[in-house]
Amino acid sequence: MDDSRFKRPSSFREERSLKNNTLSVPNSNNWLNPSKSQAGCSTLRAGGYRNKVALKPGHSSLDWHELTTTKGKKFGLVTNVDRLLTLDLDHLKSTNYPQTLVQISRKVPLYLIRPPLRVDKELLRRHNTKDDCWCVIQGKVYCLTNYFDFHPGGVDILLRYCAGKDATKMFNEYHRWVSYDKLLETCFVGVYVE
Questions:
Q1: For residue 37, what pLDDT band results from cuts at 50, 70 and 90?
Q2: Residues near 61 by Cβ (< 8 Å), separated by ≥ 6?
Q3: Is 90 exceeded by the pLDDT of residue 153?
Q4: What's the pLDDT band for 22 if we cut at 50, 70, 90?
Q5: Do 63 and 150 touch, CB atoms closer than 8 A?
Q6: Residue closest to 100 by CA, chosen among 83, 119, 87, 86
Q7: What spans are recorded as compositionally biased (Basic and acidic residues) (predicted)?
Q8: Residue 136 confidence class, pLDDT cut points 50, 70, 90
Q9: In DSSP terms, which residues pair with 136 in a beta bridge?
């Protein structure tokens, strides 16, 4: 094989040293523009600041994982499920399958029920308080009540923009990379129907 056709590549260092022995410093106005957010991350605004709150001790993401894999897997993390069968029973009968309601009456955690509970706008709006907060993300209804103290943005923002509402747009704007279905798996209430 004739090696004369192939040029031996020079290393990056050799090439750089041959061009010049100076280093150029980027203009700070080009790479740090306070009016723009960080590429690929909409939660970082000008200067890279985020509106986070200090979490209480014992409320880290690892603590949330522990809660969901212990208490959550056993009982589910949906609050006031008993209320569904007393106050909302007539409404549930009109929108859900009988086998779904039977499973709820047998205290099966909502995230395990198949077919899942069907939640319409009227039922969703009833669950809009700090003690009983449901929201919709991508057509699935989740109970955020137990997650409040674990949310890095704090309780107030969840209550303001998510309580009893479809929070898909807000979620996608700030947390589109988060696997919400895994994070809130045991908080699953049902599917949203119009």
A1: very low
A2: 150
A3: yes
A4: low
A5: yes
A6: 119
A7: 1-18
A8: very high
A9: 141, 166
DSSP letters, 144-189, are -GGGGGG-TT-HHHHHHHTTTEE-HHHHHHHHTTS-HHHHTGGGEE
Buried b (16+ CB within 10 A) or exposed e, 4-21: eeeeeeeeeeeeeeeeee
Share of the chain above pLDDT 70, in %: 74
Q: Is the pLDDT of residue 35 over 50?
A: no
End-to-end distance of the chain based on CA atoms, in angstroms? 72
Side chain identity at 6, as an amino acid letter?
F
Which amino acid appears at position 50 of this protein?
R
More confident call, 66 vs 33: 66
- Residue 60's region, left for phi above 0, alpha for psi from -120 to 50, else beta, is beta
CATH topology of domain 52-192: Flavocytochrome B2; Chain A, domain 1 (3.10.120)
Longest dimension (CA), the chain: 87
